[in-house]
C-alpha cells in the first residue's frame, strides 16, 4: 500500500474461499482484497473463524482442493497462485513464501530432529548436500538465538522449550530467505517476555532481508508493535483497513472499536472495566444478512431503515484507508466518542 | 537399550512362570484324572498307582510343578520313560513322546502359516488402507471400506471350505492344502500353503485396511503434516516420511500381537485345511488331558507373545523418539 512499485509484491483481489461441508457451504472468506509491498508488514486482526487463517493457507495452496471452491486472484510477484500447478507451488513454498504456524509443538514433526526439519527445506530448494544443509540449519538456529546450535541441531522438538520451538519454527520458515512470510499467531502460545523477543527477531530479520510479512493475530498489542498496515476481518470479510495508527487511534468500524474496548489500556486508570463485544462470532454456514456484524453491533439501530440487516456495507478504500459500515462519518464521530468516553469514567 | 533388554527379559521370565503355574493349577482343577485315561478300562488300584508313578504325577502339586520347572533347565529322570535331556518339557501322557520333539515337529508348519499369511495381510491391508486414506471419500476409499467390512465379517471355516470347493475342487486353480518343508521343496511348500495363507489373511487384511486408513486419516490432518507441505516437500515425501511415520506405531503394536497369536497356532485354519500345526496340538492335548503337551504349547505361545512384545516396544521407540526405553 505504501509501495512505490507499479505492481505490489503480493496482490489479492476479491478472494472467495468456500468449503463444502456436510451441513452446507461455509463462506470462510467472502470477497477479500489487499496488497502488500516488500519490506512491509500487514497485520490481519480478527476473531477465530474470521477467515484470517484460511486466507493465508489459501495463499500457500494448502487448502483441501477437493472440498474448496475458490474465486478471485492471488498474485505473488506477478505470478498467479490460484491456478498454479502443485509442482509450481511446491517450488514456491518454503522458498519464496513460507509460513510460521501458531502451535510449534504440534506443527513440528515429533519424528525428526530440528536440524533435519530445517535442513530438508533448504535441501529441497537448493539441492545442496546433507552436510551443507546441516551447516545451514546450525547457522539458522544461531541466527534465531538458540544457544549451542551445533548441539541443539540434533535435538527433537520435544527436547526444546516452547520459546525455542517457536524460534526453530521461524528458523525453518526463513531458511531459504523467503520474500513473503506469513506468521499465523506465532506468539500466542508464548509468555510475554518470549513473545517480545520473537517479535524483535522478526523485525530484525525483516530489516535484514526486506521480507514482506503478513502477521495474523487477535492481539492488538502485537499489531501495535509490528504492523505497518492493519486489516480487520470479521465473518470472512474485511471490515476495516488502514495504517496501524489510523486503525488503532481512529477506528472507523464498530467491530474495531469493540476490539479496542476489550483490551486493557496501560495509560488510563487501572480499574476501568473492559468492555467485551456481546454475542459470539457469526456462523459462516449461515451468516447474518447485510452487515455480518449487525447482530452484535451496539449502533445498528442508529442506522435508519434497517440498512444494517438488509444491505451489505461496501468497503470503499481511498489511499489504503476504509471501513465497511453504514454509519455516516458524523454518526461515528459522535457515537464512538461517547463509547470511548464511557470507558474512561 | 541394555537396561531395557535386561529389565524386559526378567519381566518376561516372571510372566512365563506365572502363566505356566496357572496352567498347571487349572489343569488339576478339572475333575479328570490323566492316569485313569492312561491306565485303561480294567484298571486296578495298584496299576493306577504305578501309572501315576511312571508319569511323575504321584507327588503333591507344588512338587510336580517344581520337577517340571527343574526339567527345563537340568533335565529330568522319569521312572516310566527314563532320562529326558534339558530342556525337558516332559513326555506326553497321550502318546508318550517327548513334548519338545512333538512341538518342534509341528512348529515349522505353524511358523510357515503364520509368517506367510502375515506377509499377505500386512502388505495387502496396509496398502489398501493407504490408498483409502489418500483417496478419502472417493470410490477407491468406498470400495476398500466396503470390501473390508464384508471380509471382516467372514469366518475362516466358511470362506475356507468355499475356497476349497471352488479354487481347488471345481476349477483346480490352487493346490490342495498340504505341508512340505521349505528345505525339502520350496515350490511345493509355497503352493501347498498358498490357499491357507490367502484365506487366513483375508479377515486380517480387512482389519489392517481399516486400521491403516483410520490412523492415516488422523495423521494426515496433523499440523506437522501441514507444515511439511508448507515447506514445499512433495506429497509423496510428506505422506511416507511424516503421515505414515505417525500412523505406524499402533499398527506395529497390533501386528506384533497378531503375529504372536498366530505363532501360538491358527486352530481353525489348521482344522479347516487338515494341517497338523501347533494349534491342533493344543486342542488335542486339552481333549486328551495331556498336561505336559498343553503346558508346552502354552509356554511356547506365551513366549512368542512376550518376545514379540519386547521387539515391538523397541521398534516403537525407534519410530517415535519421544518414547524412551527404560
Automatic annotation (TrEMBL), chain A:
What is the protein name stated in its UniProt record?
ABC transporter ATP-binding protein
Give membrane topology per the record: Peripheral membrane protein
Where is it mainly found? membrane
This entry's Gene Ontology molecular function terms read: ATP binding; ATP hydrolysis activity
Q: Which UniProt key words apply to this protein?
A: ATP-binding, Cell membrane, Membrane, Nucleotide-binding, Transport
Report the subcellular localization. Cell membrane
Provide a GO biological process annotation: peptide transport
Top-level taxon = Bacteria
Automatic annotation (TrEMBL), chain B:
* GO biological process, any: transmembrane transport
Q: Which Gene3D superfamilies match?
A: MetI-like (1.10.3720.10)
Is Transmembrane found in the keyword set?
A: yes
tRNA-binding keyword on record: no
- Localization in the cell: Cell membrane
Provide the topology term for how it sits in the membrane.
Multi-pass membrane protein
Any stretches that span the bilayer, and where are they?
12-30, 113-134, 146-168, 188-206, 251-273, 293-319
Q: Which InterPro entries match?
A: BPD_transp_1_N, MetI-like, MetI-like_sf
Instruction: Tell me the keywords, alphabetical order.
Output: Cell membrane, Membrane, Transmembrane, Transmembrane helix, Transport
The UniProt family comment states: Belongs to the binding-protein-dependent transport system permease family.
Spell out the protein name for this chain: ABC transporter permease
Q: Give the organism, scientific name.
A: Streptomyces actinomycinicus
At the highest ranks, the source species' classification is: Bacteria, Bacillati, Actinomycetota, Actinomycetes, Kitasatosporales
Amino acid at each position: 500500500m505504501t509501495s512505490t512499485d507499479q505492481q505490489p509484491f503480493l496482490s489479492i483481489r476479491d478472494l472467495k474461499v468456500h468449503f463444502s461441508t456436510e451441513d452446507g457451504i461455509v463462506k470462510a472468506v467472502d470477497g477479500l482484497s489487499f496488497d502488500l509491498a516488500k519490506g512491509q508488514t500487514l497485520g490481519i486482526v480478527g476473531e477465530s473463524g474470521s477467515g484470517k487463517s484460511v486466507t493465508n493457507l489459501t495463499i500457500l495452496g494448502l487448502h483441501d482442493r477437493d472440498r474448496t471452491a475458490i474465486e478471485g486472484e492471488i498474485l505473488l510477484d506477478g505470478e498467479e497462485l490460484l491456478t498454479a500447478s502443485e509442482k509450481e507451488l511446491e517450488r514456491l513454498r518454503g522458498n519464496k513464501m513460507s509460513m510460521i504456524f501458531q502451535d510449534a509443538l504440534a506443527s513440528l514433526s515429533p519424528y525428526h530432529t530440528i536440524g533435519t526439519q530445517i535442513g530438508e527445506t533448504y535441501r529441497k530448494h537448493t539441492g545442496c548436500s546433507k552436510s551443507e544443509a546441516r551447516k545451514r540449519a546450525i547457522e539458522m538456529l544461531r541466527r534465531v538465538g538458540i544457544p549451542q546450535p551445533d548441539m541443539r541441531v540434533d535435538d527433537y522438538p520435544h527436547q526444546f522449550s516452547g520459546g525455542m520451538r517457536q524460534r526453530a519454527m521461524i528458523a525453518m520458515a526463513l531458511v531459504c530467505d523467503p520474500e513473503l512470510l506469513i506468521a499465523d499467531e506465532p506468539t500466542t502460545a508464548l509468555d510475554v517476555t518470549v513473545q517480545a523477543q520473537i517479535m524483535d527477531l522478526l523485525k530484525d530479520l525483516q530489516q535484514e532481508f526486506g521480507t514482506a510479512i503478513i502477521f495474523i493475530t487477535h492481539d492488538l498489542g502485537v499489531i501495535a508493535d509490528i504492523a505497518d498496515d492493519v486489516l480487520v476481518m470479521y465473518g470472512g470479510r474485511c471490515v476495516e483497513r488502514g495504517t496501524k495508527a489510523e486503525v488503532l487511534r481512529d477506528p472507523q468500524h464498530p467491530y474495531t472499536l469493540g476490539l479496542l474496548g476489550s483490551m486493557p489500556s496501560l495509560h488510563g486508570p487501572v480499574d476501568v472495566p473492559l468492555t467485551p463485544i456481546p454475542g459470539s462470532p457469526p456462523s459462516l454456514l449461515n451468516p447474518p444478512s447485510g452487515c455480518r456484524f449487525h447482530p452484535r453491533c451496539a449502533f445498528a439501530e442508529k442506522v435508519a431503515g434497517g440498512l444494517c440487516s438488509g444491505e451489505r456495507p461496501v468497503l470503499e478504500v481511498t489511499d489504503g484507508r476504509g471501513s465497511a459500515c453504514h454509519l455516516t462519518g458524523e454518526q461515528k464521530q459522535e457515537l464512538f466518542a461517547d463509547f470511548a468516553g464511557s470507558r474512561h469514567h | 537399550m541394555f537396561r531395557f533388554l535386561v529389565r524386559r527379559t526378567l519381566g518376561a521370565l516372571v510372566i512365563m512362570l506365572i502363566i505356566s503355574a496357572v496352567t498347571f493349577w487349572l489343569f488339576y482343577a478339572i475333575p479328570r484324572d490323566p492316569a485313569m485315561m492312561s491306565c485303561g478300562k480294567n484298571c486296578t488300584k495298584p496299576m493306577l498307582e504305578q501309572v501315576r508313578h511312571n508319569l511323575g504325577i504321584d507327588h503333591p502339586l507344588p512338587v510336580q510343578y517344581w520337577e517340571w520347572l527343574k526339567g527345563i533347565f537340568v533335565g529330568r529322570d522319569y521312572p516310566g520313560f527314563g532320562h529326558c535331556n534339558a530342556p525337558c518339557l516332559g513326555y506326553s501322557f497321550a502318546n508318550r513322546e517327548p513334548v519338545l520333539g512333538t512341538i518342534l515337529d509341528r512348529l515349522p508348519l505353524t511358523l510357515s502359516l503364520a509368517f506367510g499369511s502375515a506377509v499377505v495381510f500386512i502388505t495387502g491391508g496396509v496398502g489398501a488402507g493407504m490408498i483409502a486414506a489418500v483417496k478419502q471419500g472417493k470410490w477407491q476409499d468406498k470400495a476398500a471400506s466396503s470390501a473390508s467390512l464384508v471380509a471382516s465379517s467372514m469366518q475362516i471355516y466358511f470362506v475356507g471350505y468355499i475356497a476349497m470347493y471352488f479354487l481347488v475342487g471345481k476349477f483346480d486353480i490352487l493346490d490342495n492344502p498340504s505341508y512340505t518343508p521349505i528345505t525339502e521343496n520350496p515350490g511345493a511348500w509355497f503352493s501347498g500353503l498358498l490357499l491357507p495363507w490367502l484365506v487366513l489373511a483375508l479377515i486380517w487384511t480387512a482389519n489392517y485396511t481399516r486400521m491403516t486408513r483410520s490412523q492415516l486419516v488422523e495423521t494426515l490432518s496433523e499440523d506437522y503434516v501441514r507444515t511439511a507441505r508448507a515447506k514445499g516437500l512433495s506429497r509423496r515425501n510428506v505422506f511416507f516420511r511424516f503421515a505414515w511415520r505417525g500412523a505406524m506405531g499402533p499398527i506395529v503394536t497390533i501386528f506384533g500381537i497378531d503375529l504372536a497369536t498366530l505363532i501360538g497356532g491358527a486352530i481353525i485354519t489348521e482344522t479347516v485345511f487338515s494341517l497338523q500345526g501347533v494349534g491342533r496340538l493344543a486342542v488335542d492335548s486339552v481333549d486328551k488331558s495331556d498336561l505336559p503337551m498343553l503346558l508346552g504349547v502354552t509356554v511356547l505361545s506365551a513366549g512368542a507373545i512376550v518376545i514379540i512384545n519386547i521387539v515391538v516396544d523397541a521398534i516403537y521407540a525407534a519410530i517415535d523418539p519421544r518414547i524412551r526405553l527404560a
